[in-house]
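Case study.
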Amino acid sequence: MKSFWTRSVAALTLAGALAAAMPVQANEQFIPVLVYRSGPYAPNGIHWANGYVDYLNLINARDGGINGVKLTYEECETGYATDRGVECYERLKGKGPTGATVFNPASTGITYALTEKASVDKIPIITMGYGRSESADGRVFPWNFPLLGTYWTAADVLIQHVGKLSGGVEQLRGKKIALVYHDSPFGKEPIPLLQERAKRHGFNLVTIPVTHPGVEQKAAWLQVRQQRPDYVLLWGWGVMNSTAIKEAAAVNYPREKMFGVWWAGAEPDVLPAGASAKGYNAIALQHSADKGAIHQDILKHVYDKGKGAGKKEDVGNVLYNRGLINALLVVESIRTAQGKYGKKSLTGEQVRWGIENLNLDQARIKAAGFYGILQPVKVSCNDHEGVRHARIHQWDGAKWSFVSGWLEGDNSILRPMVEGAAAKYAKEKNLTPGCMKG
Amino acid sequence: MIYRESGQFKTSYVADQAVFPIAQDRWFIAAWLLVGFVLVPLIANEYMLRAILIPFAIMALAALGLNILVGYCGQLSLGTGGFMAVGAYAAYNLCIRIPELNPIIAFVIAGGFATLVGILFGIPSLRIKGYYLAVATLASQFFLEWLFNRVQWFTNYAPSGSVSAPPVTLFGLTFDTPVLKYLLCLAILVVFALVAKNLVRGRIGRAWMATRDMDVAAEIIGIRPMYAKLSAFAVSSFFVGVAGALWAFIHLGSWEPAAFDINRSFNILFMVIIGGLGSIVGGFLGAAFITTLPLILNQAPQWFGIALSTAMISHLEFMIFGALILFFLIVEPLGLARLWRIGKEKLRLWPFPH
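After joint prediction, the assembly is written out as follows.
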């Protein structure tokens, strides 16, 4: 026993000495990774997190970092809880030679909490497809980037799609659309847009909340059965989605008329529901379970070397791709910022410039290995979304396949709402809207 | 030897009735205050302040409040999260509807609203006891959560239901840096702790404790149970309401009703039970234990250079945390405060403790 202790103490001392002796690597870019690999949302969160870190590992293994600047990262478990998310933010924001590069909160609640803090600490927040919808206005929200569409964009595209199914949006008049939503900021986010669309097209909007975490939905679906809406939009997350699909089957509501948000459109949402999920639709903000050149690279450079974060067969599923694309946007933003500030460790403020000036055209997307998965993204101060295209995909019992072409969020409806909400926020907070320089 | 009061003579009633009659205790408290107000702001980094010390101070205040109700008056409550939400949303609404109102004053008025709600939901305690009362207060938790989720007036019609707090200022000073926020929370905590300490050793506190120990006997010796129970609900809810306002304004900055869900109630109840029922110092110890231990467990593997997956660390955190709660409850069912008291008694007999 004694020898064990002596040896471990010796080993620890040695390790400490080695760590102290190692030179400080200045050429590093630290990326904090907020994840939830435990708790009720873990089945979804794990894939997202795996995709995210796999891409960072790929950049290090294949390219030796971004222009020679190595990427370092650290995960922090939030469990989708706002207070733990804030704690993670505080824990990670100062790490690395220049502090945290950019935060991806992966939760609307955490996004709201960090919006207040990140502008003070000068760290940008990327909320890819979620977060505050009005933060698309970069003049009021210089540090928030809801890239690839917001919940309002998603809701807008969904209404356009169900409009098409009915033979034009004007045919929605008098129809009934129900929103079954997760009772949290995330679930409530699309309501203003849906109300606006309902006013324009004259359909009835029925909102049915489901309490977190959403395993008990009998009452909600009883309401659906009574109201018999023409379409059901599902703004669910985690275990709530598969439960909703099962309940829909139980009240015999056709799954073909159910449309999930992208958080409700991945494998963990439909697989537990088994055969009853067949025909269920969801919006895909850009991608589905596509595979491209990038996945070959990941298998070759990361998984074949035994460094993969997850299982090999999960590479390329919907939420894995989500994490992958999220990491791609971070990496490309850093690359863009390096073009201006030099190939060294950059601060959050410099990376913010990189995100705001991000311009991914088809050629760059192809070079990154995402051809066919991603549409061109061009961010500007006015438009922090970058792109508003989406498609609808359907679960056929075994895989997701697209049932629509590319649809685009209607900016003539979205923009005034975004600007109105952003102006209200600016007034509350006494901000002067304007583009940031540098 | 060190902790012995021999030679300290009390020559007046005032000295005899002092909050801390023993000189060593006074020095001890003074030292802690010095550490809290001077040393900590000088040495603590931003992470320590924002992620550990501020949540600790606010949770200690809430635990103090709940301890008055559960520990001193014996009325089990599971509605703490709901009362915190009342404080938070009352302060928010006061601030946005009356912009001239100073937020600090709004916190106090918000505490007043929480008091009213607390009394309202305390009325069932006059007829029911124990587990049944726990269920009744559980109902208040769910009702209040539902109220702030559904009635949009409370959230000023925010589309997502998430509201953000205006900045907190006092005499032209804006509490926006971590140190200032921490000092504000600590100052409020110290004031409330002093109030609590004085309440529980006075007439009201004795009435609460008599009701807790045996309500029929208390009634026979002339304590009005309605007055005792409702006053406990009132004082407790006031503390908890102010803590809720601080949690929302100072710690989170932006929040949704989920920040005050049933888990928050359980959390604070655990603080009171682990810390020690019916003890002021217990509230502090319990809050320290429950707020910091998960964070320590979560980061410990990294400090020791043990490579574990994030999921594994998170699961271990839950398991070890649960096991430690069980361990403490088995070893010392009266809580950490009891351990503290035993330590003090041993110190008195030192160097020959028996």
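Observations recorded in class. Residues 3 and 348 of chain B are 5 Å apart (CA to CA). Chain B touches chain A at residues 46-47, 50-51, 55, 96, 149, 159-162, 164, 166, 176, 251-256, 258-259, 261, 295, 298-299, 305, 309-311, 313-315, 318 (CB under 8 Å). We will return to this complex in the next lecture.
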